[in-house]
Amino acid sequence: MLSAVALGAFGAHLFEQLLIENGREHVYKTASAYHFYHALGLLVIGAIQSQNTQLKFFRSTIALLFAGVLVFSGSLYLLAVQDIAWAGALTPLGGLMLLMGWSFLLASLLIQGKNER
């Protein structure tokens, strides 16, 4: 969460002029938004896991979401600030990891609900 807030602040202040001049402010804002919301989601998932250690796939969920944020938002941050073209090719991979992470969470919750019946 700290990194999401810090990088959001850097984009709003330190990199603002560069991003506006290069027309990539929206790319940075997208990276920052996904970073923040997924960091918040990871905190919620951690709280759920601490209350219910029987849920399956939680480690996989956390790993996929963490890696997804790193690759998705990280590639967009690089693309926005440095215009590193190959970074844009990594963005869909990060998005896929995020989708898989949320899918694993859903599967875990469905399995848990089925086992409780």
What would you say this structure looks like, in words?
This protein is an all-alpha fold. It has one domain (2-116). It has five helices and no strands. The chain has helices at residues 2-14, 16-21, 25-51, 58-82, 85-116. Helix 1 (2-14) runs antiparallel to helix 3 and helix 3 runs antiparallel to helix 4. It is elongated, with a radius of gyration of 16 Å. The model has no long low-confidence stretch (mean pLDDT 84).
List the helices and strands and how they pair.
Blueprint: H1 2-14, H2 16-21, H3 25-51, H4 58-82, H5 85-116
Q: How large, in whole angstroms, is the Cα Rg?
A: 16 Å
Low-confidence stretches: none
Largest sheet: none
SS field, number of helical segments: 5
Which range does the strand content fall in?
A: under 5%
**Mean of pLDDT:** 84
User: SSE string, helix = H, strand = E?
Assistant: HHHHH
Helix content, binned percent: over 70%
Number of domains: 1
Derived from helix and strand composition plus strand pairing, the structural class reads mainly alpha
Question: What's the end-to-end separation, in Å?
Answer: 36 Å
Number of E strands: 0
Can you tell me the overall shape? elongated
